[in-house]
Write a structure and sequence with these properties.
Blueprint lengths: L2 H82 L2 E3 L6 E3 L6 E17 L14 E15 L3 E8 L10 E12 L2 E8 L5 H4 L12 H10 L4 E9 L3 E11 L10 E14 L4 E14 L17 E2 L2 E2 L13 E2 L3 E17 L2 E14 L2 E3 L7 E3 L4 E13 L6 E3 L4 E3 L16 E15 L6 E3 L5 E3 L3 E16 L4 E13 L17 E13 L1
Antiparallel strand pairs: 1-2, 2-3, 3-4, 3-27, 4-5, 5-6, 6-7, 7-8, 8-9, 9-10, 10-11, 11-15, 12-15, 13-14, 15-16, 16-19, 17-18, 19-22, 20-21, 22-25, 23-24, 25-26, 26-27
């Protein structure tokens, strides 16, 4: 039992130690709880801050989204305004208005040509038996118009003419048509325009090498084509192949007819050589035109054997039209006809700054019968023989300053050179210079040796099969100056030789008197075209 006191003694001795340790342990627990509580408060504060930040981010994101939407809307509005905005340009001196997408365009067109000419004729031409041509000046062309596109696929052109041949006019419509090109390279055109019938025919009047188109082309185009001709055309205009089929009527301003002319025209052209590296092109072109129904000169029911129902007149001035009287040295006169057919072949091409063009045309007139009363006799029906006429030309140029003519696939024709260095005294540049030469032969004679005649008066004889319209041969030498792409000056010298036998006689023998003449013409043109 002795050990008990020892354990008691040990316990009594340890009691003070436990008494000292116990408060310290309790104090440590209290500090930890305080720290934990403080950390919890800090965590709650951080969580509150995070929540505030999240809320601020949501608000900021909404603001950013709103601002972004506003910017997008402003950009869309700006793009919309830009799409509807009209751009203005003056390329080549031509005022052009267009929308950025090109669906709507409008270009002002102008062409002013002022001509001066001096005719050098023999004294015989100034007598009562010969035409005396009038030297002087003439505003050959004074054109103003508008052309462009609407809704992308539709094209239009309206052109008004205040100038004219021989004398200026009071103004007339030259072109007024609408064209659908949504199936390019196919197009359909309707209105008043020059239907395609040849290279020279489709060369713009502002791009002609000389004052006028050559006589062979002019005589042919005036039968079924030429400017202000009412018609409809189906056109194919590819890079190298061109084709057009047209139905045409009369020209604007034609009057005095009971039923108008109806004609058909076809043209096919191919750019056989198109070498851009050597700047060489060769164009081949062929055409045919047929007057299906000529104009009716008298009303239905009229005795057409007495009054001629249809007539056609082939004629042309000597490739310049300054003469105030509009005299044409070659003319068939009015030929009664059923139909008229024309055909032609042309070729043109350039090699760098050299250009050459040639063409041949034929004209066939199917003559109609008519009534004539012989001297002291009764009326009888005359059925003249059909007539054939021909004409051809050759022309070329050398551009001294090295430029070349441009090719236009939309018309299958060539255009003026564009000066590489426009005229400028300050820069010492002189624009483009061109030397041009042309020969044309237009023969409006047919059956000239046919002596079949009828006596129409006491001393008048008519040779019913004979057409002596005359043969006109013209040599033209030209010097052209292009100060810039809008201005041009032409100086031409022409030698005109017209051979024409008389038709009036008081005997039953064909006349042999030559009523033609030889003359020279020197002329100057100033031109601005855009």
């Amino acid at each position: 039992m002795r050990p008990a006191p020892k354990r008691i003694i040990a316990m009594l001795m340890a009691a003070p130690l436990f008494a000292a340790i116990a408060p310290s342990a309790f104090a440590g627990t209290s500090d930890t709880e305080a720290k934990i509580k403080a950390l919890q408060q800090q965590l709650e504060a951080m969580q509150a801050q995070i929540a505030e930040l999240k809320q601020a981010q949501v608000v900021a994101a909404a603001d950013v989204k709103k601002q972004t939407e506003e910017i997008v809307n402003r950009v869309a509005d700006t793009e919309k305004k830009q799409k509807s905005a009209v751009a203005v340009s003056l390329k080549g001196g031509r005022p052009t208005f267009s929308t950025p997408d090109g669906d709507f365009t409008a270009s002002l067109r102008g062409n002013l040509q002022v001509d001066y000419a001096y005719y050098m004729q023999s004294k015989a031409a100034q007598s009562l038996t010969g035409p005396d041509l009038s030297s002087g000046a003439n505003i050959r062309r004074a054109q103003l118009g508008l052309e462009g596109t609407i809704f992308g696929d539709w094209a239009y052109k309206f052109n008004y003419e205040f100038g004219g041949t021989a004398t200026e006019g009071g103004g007339k419509i030259l072109n007024a048509y609408l064209e659908y090109g949504g199936l390019a390279p196919f197009a359909l055109r309707i209105g008043a325009f020059a239907p395609s019938i040849g290279i020279e025919d489709q060369t713009s009047s502002s791009d002609l090498m000389f004052f006028e188109r050559n006589s062979p082309s002019t005589v042919v185009r005036n039968i079924t084509g030429a400017d202000d001709r009412l018609g409809i055309s189906a056109i194919y205009a590819g890079p190298r192949l061109f084709g057009a089929v047209s139905l045409t009527g009369n020209r604007i301003g034609s009057s005095g007819y009971y039923d108008e002319q109806l004609s058909a025209i076809g043209r096919l052209a191919y750019l056989a050589i198109d070498d851009k590296e050597s700047d060489a092109h060769v164009l081949l072109s062929g055409s045919i035109a047929h007057v299906i129904k000529p104009d009716d000169l008298v009303a239905a029911g009229t005795n057409i054997t007495v009054n001629k129902l249809h007539t056609v007149t082939l004629s042309d001035a000597p490739e310049i039209t300054v003469d105030d009287n509009g005299i044409k040295l070659i003319s068939t006169g009015a030929l009664n006809d059923n139909h008229v057919t024309t055909w032609g072949f042309e070729t043109a091409g350039n090699y760098r700054n050299f250009y050459l063009q040639a063409g041949y045309n034929g004209i066939e007139v199917d003559r109609a019968a008519y009534s004539i009363t012989p001297y002291n006799g009764t009326a009888k029906i005359i059925a003249p023989k059909n007539n054939s006429f021909y004409a051809w030309y050759l022309q070329g140029s050398w551009i001294l300053t090295g430029e070349s003519k441009g090719y236009n696939p939309k018309t299958a024709a060539f255009s003026n050179p564009k000066p590489a260095q426009p005229f400028s005294i300050e820069n010492g540049t002189w624009g483009a210079w061109e030397i041009a030469v042309r020969y044309s032969d237009t023969n409006l004679n047919s059956n000239i040796r046919d002596a079949t005649y009828i006596r129409t008066g006491s001393s008048a004889y008519a040779f019913t099969n004979t057409v002596r319209g005359g043969e006109q041969q013209i040599y033209t030498f030209g010097l052209n100056w292009y100060p810039n792409s809008a201005l041009r000056f032409l100086l031409d010298y022409m030698i005109v030789d017209v051979g024409k036998l008389g038709t009036t006689t008081t005997s039953a023998v064909l006349p042999t008197v030559n009523i033609g003449q030889n003359l020279q013409v020197i002329s100057l043109r100033s031109q601005i075209a855009f």
